[in-house]
Amino acid sequence: MVSADVYNNIEIVKYKIAKAAASIGRDSDQIKIIAATKGQPLEAMIQAVETGYIDGIGENRVQEARKKKEKWPKSPSTTWHMIGHLQRNKAKVAVQLFDVIQSIDSANLTDILEQRLVLLRKTMPVLIEVKISSEASKYGVEPDHARVLAEHILGLCPHLKLIGLMGIGPLTDEKKRIRSSFALLRRLKEELEEDLGVELPELSMGMSDDFEIAIAEGSTMVRLGRAIFGPRGN
Question: How many domains does the chain divide into?
């Protein structure tokens, strides 16, 4: 049975998504909810998926994801997204654990993933993580290097399917700065689509504190932890 807290939180999230989408004439059904589950107990994760409103599980660490996935029941099924920084020495394990990798940030990483995927005869949807804020703790390729990485994936990594871009907004209360960072990522996606002649359907941006701004700037995928589960440890 789904706990009242998780269900009510997701209902609030759905309302906020619908309101943000409607404000700019978007359909809220275009926006996927990825539950960011770092540090969350398995039971809460299962409850979130059982609501039917969650489009995937997002994990930050390979080891934590492996332990959780080993215990995951046959039902409910879900897709598993790698949303944290992926170290190259964990790449071989990651391609077996995850359905989508959102944090591609180097050609070296893509080459390792490609080699492993060839052996597995598997294709992996991926997003390029772009650094759209100035914090030193944030990962991602610099915006002016995103095109080179996209070309590398499209030209040399046939087992990686590039489906979009991912970014983390700045840690600030200044909505103007947050909006500007998300607008930068949206424009970059549009430029890559036009210049490279490809369709990049996914724009993964927006977390618990800023997902409404992200949706207004074109996000198709929000990664929500606290908004769904409450603070970690509660």
Answer: 1
